[in-house]
Amino acid sequence: MNQAFQLYRLQQVDSQLDQAHARLREIDSILKNDVAIREAEEEVKKTTQDLDGAKKELRKAEENTKNQRQKIKNTDDQLYGGKVRNPKELQDLQKESEALGRYLGVLEERQLEAMMVVEDLTQTFENAEKKLQEVRAHQIEQHAALLGERRQITQQAKQWLAERQAVSSPISETNIAHYDHLRKRRAGIAVAKVTEKSCSACGTELSTAHFQMALVSKDLHHCESCGRILYAG
Ligand SMILES: [Zn+2]
Predict the structure, then answer these.
(1) CA 229 to centroid of ligand 1, rounded, Å
(2) CATH classification code of 34-168
């Protein structure tokens, strides 16, 4: 087996390992990311505050109408109690009672509006809570799937590491060092297969002489354009 082929096998295993590690990093980042949950929680918190505020307003409005009714009752008690007999005083009480009654209408209207606001915000709050539960349920499901995938990839990566050991053992130390050096400089790909007389990594076409050399020679040959080791296979 020539060194180019062995290096090519090593490259294949390393590419798979690179892919596995990239996916593991991606999975870890998704597992750590809880933006959706935090946003949903924030929404529940905000709608709770809004609803509490609206309920407070409603209680105030209810208190106001209750007080107003009491004022009307007090005035009417005086008006019809029989103690006040002076016609001018009675007339004033009558007017006061009417004015209080008119303002009661305004206060009742405000109470009704406050009630509607509470109803609306109760709905908004319930929707926010439901959404939070959905987001949580989705995350539990998603995390379970990702953890499963994570286990599987880790398991697979162990096998590839064992394979890497086997594949790299017959390669000379010099070539391994050369390979590592190229991998660092060429985005993880140190060995390129030659397909249709071209470097599969950069697409550059090989001269016929160069291709023949790469095909038969035991020495390593490099792509003249990207510098990668060529495996003509
Ligand atoms: Zn190339």
Answers:
(1) 8
(2) 1.10.287
